[in-house]
Task: structure prediction
Amino acid sequence: MALTLHLAGDPAADALLAADPLALLIGMLLDQQIPMEVAFTGPHKLDERLGGLDVHTIAEMDEEAFLAICATPPAVHRFPGSMGKRIQDLCRYLVEHWDGDATAIWSEGDPDGREILKRLKALPGYGDQKARIFLALLGKQIGLQATGWRSAAGAYGEDGSRRSIADVVDDTTLAEVREFKKAAKAAAKSAKA
Result:
């Protein structure tokens, strides 16, 4: 992946995300209950603390030792224990099912968008929405050419939308995505009332 991303808003963290598909998967995994750009700096923190981001190293590491690395200030997530376990579960799954190759999820066997979505939803810590957002990110910013990726990603795949991290390419689009999320949250809140 020779590309430029602006997901973390930090040049070193964004360079890692652009170069390493595992970092991208971990960043997406961490993207809950914290600001998007904070989630996507998590892989860079791990990379620095571990001396490299290696799926096998993380998968085989002693859980308590790995959780301590995740909790070291600044922590990789506001819930470093539970999210650290999810990162390790994700890496173990990748080793067991994809021989440690994150890109195989969207490339092995020339899958279409629906198949990639199914594979993403099978990942530990990835539900339907997270999988659709990641699929949109692959299509919009990573250059995924799989047939039907936009329809499989649902609304997140819409061209020109500002719904998720998949649409963040600079500070302006980050602000637009934040505004969309704020409005969606307010609409959901008023619908409950």
In short: Residues 11-192 form a domain with the Endonuclease III; domain 1 fold (CATH 1.10.340.30). The two ends are 46 Å apart (CA to CA).
